[in-house]
Amino acid sequence: MKITSNQAIQATLSGDWENAIRLNKMLLDEKPDDVEALNRIGLAFTVTNDKKNAKKSYEKVLEIDPLNSIALKNLRKLESNNQSDSPTIIQVNNIFIEETGRTKVVDLINLAQAEILMSLKTGQNVDMSVKRLKIFIHQEKNYIGVLPDDIGNRLIKFIKGGNTYEAFVKSATHQNVSIFIRELKKSAKYKDQPSFLHTLETKLHLKSDKKPRKTKRKS
After folding, report:
1. Are strands 164-172 and 177-185 parallel, antiparallel or unpaired?
2. Distance between CA 194 and CA 181 in Å, rounded?
3. Average model confidence (pLDDT) across the chain
4. Is the pLDDT of residue 175 over 60?
5. Which of 19, 56, 159, 212 would give a disulfide with 11, using CB separation of 3.0 to 4.6 Å?
6. Strand partners, 126
């Protein structure tokens, strides 16, 4: 039976860890360098307290993609927890499972009034709408904030091309709101382009867009 990545993702999101391990192993049998499957199975091994295999999974990711932020972060957590021989208790909020290129945590700008921000709860679904070349974030009729231009401009292009996204409140205080954005559907037009870039990739992308300065000749 052909296994799809969507089946493995759903098993992970639902917290069905044994099934997640089984399905992601089947994906890796077909494609050993699938970093998304390796990250998912690393998470599943971590939650089931199989630190050895979790570490192997994340190390394999870094062999393929040395800058993979998910593997780097989770490997650091594992290594810090190895100082204790007691079982590691990990609480996982399935909403916020990260996937390279498909998810991102973003701090909003141009925020609403403090009383609106303080009413937000972690995990609460928020809406995204494109207006005046910006992406506005709101919850029902309440305006919350705006995505920064670098991320907003990139997502507007993808949304107009057919990509779809969902967003949730990651954290909120009276003066800061972070949201978690996940790509739900990728259009055929942008099938080879990630929705979100690594920090280093973003810097390189911006650098390549800069026009070289013209130097004046000395007379």
Report:
1. antiparallel
2. 13
3. 83
4. yes
5. 19
6. 167
Taking the C-alpha atoms of residue 60 and residue 41, their distance in angstroms, rounded to an integer, is 11
69, 198, 122, 58: CA torsion to nearest 10: -20
Quick one: tokens of 24?
Answer: 């992601």
Sketch the domain layout of the chain as residue ranges. 5-83, 103-190
CATH no., domain 103-190: 3.30.70.2330
What percent of the chain clears pLDDT 90, i.e. is strictly above it?
Answer: 49
What single-letter DSSP state applies at residue 210? S
Looking at the DSSP bridge assignments, the partners of residue 137 are 128, 145
CA torsion through residues 23, 60, 186, 184, sign = positive
CATH of domain 5-83: 1.25.40.10
Q: What is the pLDDT of residue 110?
A: 96
For 6, the token pair is: 């969507």
